[in-house]
């Protein structure tokens, strides 16, 4: 009898732990340096948002988002500027742990690194 109760408890514990979705979070993502992990609520999913301000400055954001707001474009406005839209962000959702990760940092090739080292050596010497 104790084994049955222990088994039911173990299965219940697995379901309660398995429901907490982990996501990366950053309000303004710059090279994925200032991101943290966050646990979403039951009605939320992970999201990644990408947009452009002034048509050239890329804005990125990550975190948890209510399922009803997923896969939509949101407008950010500043009331002090006559409700002018400053930028739009396309928020895309996913539903597995840490699924809103971004590609790694841009890498320098060996050639770029060698050229930069040569240039810095000539400037500093």
From TrEMBL:
Which organism was this protein described from?
Salmo trutta
Which membrane topology describes this protein? Lipid-anchor; GPI-anchor
Q: Which UniProt keywords apply?
A: Cell membrane, Disulfide bond, Glycoprotein, GPI-anchor, Lipoprotein, Membrane, Signal
Give me any GO biological process, just one. sperm-egg recognition
Return the SUPFAM superfamilies for the record.
Snake toxin-like (SSF57302)
The text of the family note is: Belongs to the SPACA4/bouncer family.
Domain UPAR/Ly6 spans what residues?
Answer: 19-101
Q: Where in the cell is it found?
A: Cell membrane
**What are the annotated GO cellular component locations?**
plasma membrane; side of membrane
**Protein's UniProt name:** Lymphocyte antigen-6, epidermis
The residue range of the signal peptide is: 1-20
Work out whether the entry's keyword set contains Disulfide bond. yes
Q: What is its main location?
A: membrane
Q: Which gene encodes it?
A: LOC115173327
Output the PANTHER family linked to this UniProt entry. Answer: SPERM ACROSOME MEMBRANE-ASSOCIATED PROTEIN 4 (PTHR47613)
Supply the source organism's classification. Answer: Eukaryota, Metazoa, Chordata, Craniata, Vertebrata
